[in-house]
UniProtKB/TrEMBL annotation:
PANTHER family, A to Z: REPLICATIVE DNA HELICASE, REPLICATIVE DNA HELICASE DNAB
A GO term from the CC aspect: cytosol
Start and end residues of each SF4 helicase domain: 1-78
Single biological process term from Gene Ontology: DNA replication
Native source species: marine sediment metagenome
Entry-linked InterPro entries: DNA_helicase_DnaB-like_C (IPR007694), P-loop_NTPase (IPR027417)
Protein name stated in the entry: SF4 helicase domain-containing protein
GO molecular function: ATP binding; DNA helicase activity
C-alpha cells in the first residue's frame, strides 16, 4: 500500500480480490501447473485483507458466483450431504 496516496492513511480497511481464472485460461493454467495437484481455480477468489485498523490481516478463499455477483464460503461445499 505504500505510495498509494491517501488510501494508506485514510482507509480503515483495504481489501483486494484476486482471481487466477481471470488471468489464466484453462489451457494456460495446465502449462504452468500440475492439474492433478492444482486444478484450475474456476470461480475461486482470493480475498486479501491488506489493511484493517481494528482487526487482523489475512487471506481467505471464497467461491465467486458470477451470474449473481456473490461470494460464498468454500467450506459449505465440503460438508457431506446426509
Amino acid at each position: 500500500l505504500r505510495e498509494s496516496g491517501s488510501i494508506e492513511q485514510d482507509a480503515d480497511v483495504v481489501i483486494f480480490i484476486h482471481r487466477e481464472d481471470m488471468i489464466y485460461s484453462p489451457e494456460d493454467w495446465s502449462k504452468v501447473h500440475d492439474i492433478e495437484k492444482e486444478p484450475y481455480p474456476r470461480g475461486i477468489a482470493d480475498i486479501i485483507i491488506a489493511k484493517h485498523r481494528n482487526g487482523p490481516l489475512g487471506q481467505l478463499k471464497l467461491r465467486f458466483v458470477g451470474r449473481i455477483a456473490k461470494f460464498t464460503n468454500l467450506e459449505a461445499e465440503l460438508i457431506p450431504a446426509s
